[in-house]
Structure formats: structure tokens, C-alpha cells
Description:
Blueprint: H1 4-11, H2 25-31, E1 39-40, H3 46-57, E2 68-73, H4 76-85, H5 91-94, E3 97-104, H6 106-114, H7 125-148, E4 152-156, H8 163-170, E5 176-187, H9 201-204, H10 215-232, H11 239-248, H12 259-265
Antiparallel strand pairs: 1-5, 2-3, 3-5, 4-5
Amino acid sequence: MTVEDPYRARYGPGAPTDLPDRWSDLVAAQLAHRSVRAYLPDPVSDATLTTLIAAAQSAPSSSNLQLWSVVAVRDPRRRARLAEVAGGQWHITEAPLLLVWLADLARARRIAAEAGASGEGADYLESALVAVIDAALAAQNAALAAESLGLGTVFAGALRNDPLAVSRELGLPAHVFPVFGLVVGHADPARPTGVKPRLAQRVVLHHERYDDSTQADGIGDYEKLLADFYTEAGLEPSWVRRVAERFGSVAGLRGRDRLREAFRRQGFQLR
Ligand SMILES: Cc1cc2nc3c(=O)[nH]c(=O)nc-3n(C[C@H](O)[C@H](O)[C@H](O)COP(=O)(O)O)c2cc1C
């Protein structure tokens, strides 16, 4: 594989033409990423789970507070109930392992209380944000590790359609919030997935100061590029319409418009 190939898969005909002066297997793996939604029933071993969690815990963590936890769900009936919460995403039941990543302020609050501190800092939006960011960085480390071991993954943000149902299902205490799931399993080679192109770098990369003058034509190019990808997958062929629908009405949020309330019910004040 030449170094031009992965750029092409990620960006299509408008791929960067300057050749990298440094390259690595890790970058190649990152550029080859694709979400997998078709799995074989083959199990993921406990030893592999240990490796994925070690990769996750190796991610940076804000002030090393490690404000996250994860629940590994293997029970098929529990996964089926969680797939239901996620709007019927049946790959959650097809794959053998679902990791539910949690913003976890309970541990830090307990440590603060035992040290005689009020813990009131945990009631602020900043603390919830730090916990969510920590969880996301850890989860992405685990996802990339899984891919490097030949496994497939897909995130399941749709668990936030009903975070309180997820919390009940997983027995989450107060001050712990389910951020998203990560499905892990063996991709079914009979139902392969392609690399999904991304926006051109000129749309997302700014130099020194924010400049949106290249947005319009970059988005136009991307719309054309992605139409083929979506058509092949049998999906609505317009990225622009997807974005517009997601933000065009509260209904597009699929219940996640009540997230602040769900956070509060889990004990997060978000001050
Ligand atoms: C936080 C997060 C939540 C996601 N939630 C879902 C989901 O609920 N269902 C799903 O099928 N894909 C989900 N995805 C996967 C995205 O749809 C996918 O990453 C995106 O379309 C780009 O495709 P790719 O990962 O194959 O490159 C999620 C991704 C992220 C980062």
C-alpha cells in the first residue's frame, strides 16, 4: 500500500497530494477505521477485554482524575434490552460484547467526602464535562486497540435516547452517567463496510485564525462524494439533509432533548 492510498479512501479524489514525511502503522490503522454494524457471534475473550481496558486506561485523563468507568455487557438478554433503548440497533445483540462508558463522579465524590471535603466542585458543568471527555478519550483508545487486534467496533450514542433506562439496567448509582456504548466483536466478512470519506481538510483545518470562507464549496464537494457511499449502503444519499434533519427539529434528537433532566436525575447538578 502506498501512502497515497489511505488518504484517497478517506478523502476521495480531493485527497491531500503532499506526501507525509512521517508515517506509522498506527496512523495507517487510524485512517483505515470504519464502523462495523455486522458481526459474527464469535466471543471476545476475557484476556482481550483486559487488553482493551488497559488501552483505555492508557489514554490521557484530565489531572489524572480518571473520572470514568465502563460496564462490559455480555448477557444476550441485557444486550437485547439495551439495543431496544438504542432504537433497535440489532448489531448490539449480534456482537458478543457491549462496553458502556460512564462519566463517573461517584468515585471522586466518595474520595472527597472521606477526606472531609464537601465535593461541591463535582456539581459544576465543568466536572461533568471533564468526566465525559475522559470517558470519550478512553473509549476511543479501546476502539482503536480493538481494531488493531482485528476486531470491529461501533459506538452506540443512541443509548442516550433513554439514559435512565440504561442506568437502571446497569445498576448505576447516583453521580454516574452512561455516555455511550461501544459494540465490540468480529466483523462478518460476508457483510463488509467501506471507509467513509470525511470533509476535506480545508473545511475543518484553520491556520492561526478561524476562516470559514472555504466551507461552502468544501461542503458541496463532500455532498457529491458521500452520495455514492450512502447510495451503495442503501441510505439517504445526502449528508446535508442528514445534518439538517438532526438539528432541524427537536424530534431529530430522539429523546435526547431531555438530557439535562436525565443528568440531574442521576445526581449531576450541572451548575
Ligand atoms: C459518540 C458516537 C456515537 C455514535 N453512535 C452511533 C449509534 O448510536 N449508532 C450507530 O450506528 N453509529 C453510531 N456512531 C458511529 C457513527 O455513525 C460513525 O462513526 C460515523 O458515521 C462515521 O463513520 P465511520 O465510523 O465508519 O467512519 C457513533 C459515533 C460516535 C463517535
